[in-house]
């Protein structure tokens, strides 16, 4: 009579492979793109976060011209579409429509997205640098969830304190406001991001 295996009769449990949450956060990004046709980053690997979190603003000449504002948070770039572009004037409350998360490598992306693809048009980096979260929540992820985040940008054009405010806490509402705080870097004149050259470093 054969002996029973020591493990016989014991319940077996499938061991699930742990997936980095940032990889799952990019599902919408991957679903919207055909990487055989677009030069955009594929987001098929988990990327190492920066030692100091980065931000980037990209000028996007798509069907509707706009700027894309991105902050590195938890291994991805949290992204907002800013139709008029960011402003250094605290009186300007710029609409910022939250978009899908992008991979960290998108912070370096410039190029032409071919016609027929999502976001078709020319993408150029307008400003970039690092940033620091300075809000009252325990971290920036909690601040985003609570609908208000404050941060300090260290860019070539954008400098100093900014606020992003969710205008409606309904999860389906993607409208935020991007506002410059009144600090030593703030300006009082009309600030039109479209008229500032990609290569200009603005000294205030």
Automatic annotation (TrEMBL):
<feature type="region of interest" description="Disordered">
    <location>
        <begin position="1"/>
        <end position="45"/>
    </location>
</feature>
<feature type="domain" description="DNA ligase D 3'-phosphoesterase">
    <location>
        <begin position="58"/>
        <end position="165"/>
    </location>
</feature>
<protein>
    <submittedName>
        <fullName>3'-phosphoesterase</fullName>
    </submittedName>
</protein>
<feature type="compositionally biased region" description="Basic and acidic residues">
    <location>
        <begin position="1"/>
        <end position="19"/>
    </location>
</feature>
<dbReference type="InterPro" id="IPR014144">
    <property type="entry name" value="LigD_PE_domain"/>
</dbReference>
<dbReference type="Pfam" id="PF13298">
    <property type="entry name" value="LigD_N"/>
</dbReference>
């Amino acid at each position: 009579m054969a002996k029973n295996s020591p493990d016989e009769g014991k319940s077996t449990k499938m061991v699930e492979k742990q997936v980095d949450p940032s990889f799952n956060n990019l599902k919408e990004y991957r679903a919207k793109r055909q990487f055989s046709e677009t030069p955009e980053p594929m987001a098929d690997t988990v990327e190492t976060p920066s030692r100091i979190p980065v931000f980037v603003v990209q000028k996007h000449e798509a069907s509707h011209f706009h700027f894309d504002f991105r902050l590195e948070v938890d291994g991805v770039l949290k992204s907002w579409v800013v139709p008029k572009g960011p402003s250094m004037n605290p009186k300007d409350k710029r609409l910022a429509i939250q978009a899908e998360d992008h991979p960290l490598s998108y912070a370096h992306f410039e190029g032409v997205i071919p016609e027929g693809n999502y976001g078709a048009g020319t993408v150029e980096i307008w400003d970039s640098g690092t940033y620091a979260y300075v809000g009252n929540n325990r971290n920036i992820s909690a601040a985003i969830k609570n609908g208000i985040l404050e941060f300090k940008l260290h860019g070539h054009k954008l400098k100093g304190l900014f606020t992003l405010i969710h205008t409606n806490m309904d999860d389906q509402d993607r409208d935020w406001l991007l506002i410059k705080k009144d600090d030593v870097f703030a300006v009082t004149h009309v600030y039109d991001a479209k008229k500032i050259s990609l290569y200009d470093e603005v000294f205030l």
